[in-house]
């Protein structure tokens, strides 16, 4: 990957806080990728972001797709679900944000386009790319015999100025924003989620879910983005024949997790691999669980 000609030219869709903090520097610094182009609904934001990395500013998604090998998304789910199928049909590999769409139908349209074209896809389930998470899941898989688990993801992110203008996060709430992360991790730990047994949304957007897993295990999740807690509380625990195993905190920064994601993504593209535990099909599964929870909570 030393040869610049082998770097993947990646276009970035979006220029908000997450794009500036994680996507853009990650793509620019990784030896296997180059931030080649940026498109955002506000051209001024795209120009400001692209200028720091020598990337081209595009006037439309179509223009961006014509100049890159892959596309990374940092936009609301409905916008991603509109552009991602176009990118896949143009043969562009995809780094997708979660949730993949705002509905199951939107997520399926993205997945169908990926499947039809054979491009690589990864969903940015950030914590799955942290070394401590991978070690924790490997130990759980090796031991087996887990009967249940619980998780808390409690944050004041939507009380901060950083996401004050993120309309979709304020509208969809914790279930859509951190729900994919929480469901993904407890699913990976205990086995595929097959049922949403209970779901409740309290005032202030505090979500509590009870999930059933394929092997008979059950789990509970508690999530909020509107609690004034610092630092953010993130802990996962499972219990069974081998006692209790806990994963707490976020020791690996999101930026490092993104680098690890890019390691996998570049390897997938160059090897022609299209399957990964965090590919677009994972995104569809998580979307189904979240939609079932939202319906059950009313």
UniProtKB/TrEMBL annotation:
Domain GFO/IDH/MocA-like oxidoreductase positions: 165-243
Alphabetized UniProt keyword annotations: Oxidoreductase
Organism superkingdom: Bacteria
InterPro entries: Gfo/Idh/MocA-like_OxRdtase_N, Gfo/Idh/MocA_oxidrdct_glycsds, GFO_IDH_MocA-like_dom, NAD(P)-bd_dom_sf
Pfam families for the chain: GFO_IDH_MocA, GFO_IDH_MocA_C3
Domain Gfo/Idh/MocA-like oxidoreductase N-terminal: 8-120
PANTHER family registered for this protein in UniProt: BCDNA.GH03377
Name assigned to this protein: Dehydrogenase
Organism: Streptoalloteichus tenebrarius (strain ATCC 17920 / DSM 40477 / JCM 4838 / CBS 697.72 / NBRC 16177 / NCIMB 11028 / NRRL B-12390 / A12253. 1 / ISP 5477) (Streptomyces tenebrarius)
């Amino acid at each position: 990957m030393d040869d610049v000609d082998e770097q993947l030219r990646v276009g970035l869709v979006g220029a908000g806080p997450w794009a500036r903090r994680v996507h853009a520097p990650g793509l620019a610094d990784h030896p296997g990728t180059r931030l080649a182009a940026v498109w955002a609904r506000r051209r001024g934001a795209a120009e400001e972001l692209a200028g720091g990395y020598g990337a081209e500013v595009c006037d439309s998604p179509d223009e961006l797709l014509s100049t890159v090998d892959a596309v990374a998304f940092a936009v609301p789910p409905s916008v991603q679900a509109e552009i991602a199928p176009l990118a896949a049909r143009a043969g562009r590999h995809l780094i997708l944000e979660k949730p993949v769409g705002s509905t199951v139908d939107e997520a399926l349209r993205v997945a169908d386009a990926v499947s039809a074209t054979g491009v690589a896809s990864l969903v940015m389930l950030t914590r799955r790319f942290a070394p401590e998470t991978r070690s924790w899941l490997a130990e759980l898989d090796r031991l087996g015999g887990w009967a249940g688990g619980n998780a808390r993801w409690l944050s004041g992110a939507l009380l901060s100025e950083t996401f004050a203008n993120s309309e979709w996060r304020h509208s969809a709430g914790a279930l859509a924003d951190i729900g994919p992360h929480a469901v993904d991790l407890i699913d990976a730990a205990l086995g595929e989620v097959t049922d949403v047994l209970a779901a409740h949304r309290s005032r202030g957007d505090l979500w509590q879910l009870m999930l059933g897993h394929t092997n008979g295990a059950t789990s509970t999740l508690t999530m909020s983005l509107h609690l004034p807690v610092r630092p953010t509380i993130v802990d996962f625990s499972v219990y069974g024949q081998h006692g209790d195993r806990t994963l707490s905190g976020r020791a690996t920064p999101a930026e490092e997790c993104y680098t690890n994601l890019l390691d996998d993504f570049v390897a997938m593209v160059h090897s022609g691999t299209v399957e990964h535990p965090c590919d677009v099909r994972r995104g569809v599964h998580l979307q189904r669980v979240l939609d079932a929870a939202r319906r059950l909570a009313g």
